[in-house]
Design a protein that fits this description.
single chain; 183 residues; alpha+beta; Alpha-Beta Plaits; four-stranded antiparallel beta sheet; 32% helix; 14% strand
């Protein structure tokens, strides 16, 4: 981080295994959690807490000034999938699903979000990952696109074209964005 620059930008980042398959047993999840923490530290990305579920990951990240959200997600997902495969932790080829969720967290809510992440195991006895992600998306004023998000499961041999959304396509109708207020 450049001298004389001070940043604190907390993000709750969530991503899923390919096709949301429960590929990560508890023993592998624990190793992967440790790997994510140490790799992030190497890249000067502070992860306050992460929790690896069988089919998805939650991480509370302080976004460094030198990286964009997409770069952080790419680093964490890319390196961890490579590490899982190189370490032969699961049978077959392991991969994360395309995309991620990244939700801003106020500094005053960091402890609450950290507790939420720590309690993932109990939380998912009541609510599925898809229900959880949909709730997060809608809580942040975004529109849930069922056919363009985690509900889309690829079929063997059938290529899915990448979804191109227009600026603002994600926003819930009726909410004004910063763009709308420019004159």
């Amino acid at each position: 981080m450049p001298y004389h620059s001070y940043t604190r930008c907390w993000l709750h980042v969530v991503w899923a295994t390919l096709d949301r398959r429960p590929l990560l047993p508890k023993s592998v999840a624990a190793k992967l959690s440790g790997y994510l923490t140490s790799y992030a530290c190497e890249k000067e990305i502070y992860i306050k807490i992460n929790f690896v579920n069988a089919d998805h990951v939650h991480a509370l990240v302080d976004l460094p000034a030198s990286l964009a959200i997409d770069e952080v997600a790419q680093l964490l997902k890319g390196s961890s999938s490579h590490w899982v495969n190189e370490s032969n932790l699961v049978p077959g080829k392991f991969a994360w699903q395309r995309g991620y969720g990244a939700f801003s967290v106020s500094h005053s809510a960091v402890a609450e979000v950290a507790k939420y992440i720590a309690n993932q195991e109990a939380h998912h006895k009541k609510k599925s990952f898809v229900e959880e992600l949909k709730q997060l998306v809608e809580r942040y004023g975004l529109e849930w696109h069922k056919e363009e998000t985690v509900e889309t499961v690829s079929l063997p041999g059938v290529a899915s074209p990448p979804t191109r959304l227009k600026p603002g396509a994600n926003e819930r109708p009726g909410l004004r964005s910063v763009r709308d207020n420019k004159t």
